[in-house]
Amino acid sequence: MTVRSDEARGDAGGNTGTGDAIVPDDTGVPTGAGDGGATPGGEGGTQGDKPLGSRAPRFIRRSRPLHLSWQVAVFLVGLAVVVLGVIMLPLPGPGWVVIFLGMGIWATEFVWAQLALRWTRRKVAEAAQKALDPKVRRRNLTLTAIGLTLIAALGGWYLWKYGLVMPWKIHED
């Protein structure tokens, strides 16, 4: 089976929740059964430049028990990296970077992680494009200027009221 866009089929029925439908390919032979829609060669339907599906070496994909063991190992390594990233969120460290690294590890084997990363990349690209819009840039610069002015005013008021004494060293005489 191959993954084909609903628009190409001409109807909206039978979608899989991602805008794609599973339809038999021209040969009528279902391919990729049991591996998330990917063909035995690691290729599935594409929604970008890379095919969906497992990126495990071919000799691992040939053996079902070996491939299942590979998937478990990839899942556990990815899980460890994601958990480490979640731990880093309140602590000093690159928490979000580590979480996305774990998602990247999962994406080497699992279609759901590949789709999540594609969605994230698309949203980041959209946000970057919005940030380059002249109106949005002007608004962001105005808000930044207002915020810095407010911080400077509060700092000036603090220095006028208390001088250069830090709050934790105030002594009552």
Structure description:
The protein has helices at residues 6-9, 58-62, 64-88, 95-107, 111-131, 134-162; strands at residues 2-5, 20-23. The chain has 173 residues and is mostly helical. Strands 1-2 form a two-stranded antiparallel ribbon. The longest helix is centred in the last third of the chain and has 29 residues, at 134-162. The radius of gyration is 26 Å and the shape is elongated. It starts with a strand and ends in an 11-residue tail after the last helix.
What's the gist of this structure?
This protein is 56% helix and 5% strand. The chain is mainly alpha-helical and 173 residues long.
Strand order of the main beta sheet, please? 1-2
Q: Mean of the pLDDT scores?
A: 74
**How are helices and strands ordered from N to C?**
EHEHHHHH
In total, the number of strands is 2
Q: How many helices in DSSP terms?
A: 6
Percent range of helical residues: 55-70%
* C-alpha-based Rg, rounded: 26 Å
Largest sheet, described in full?
2 strands, antiparallel
* Proportion in β-strands: under 5%
Low-confidence stretches: 1-47
The assigned structural class equals mainly alpha
Principal-axis shape equals: elongated
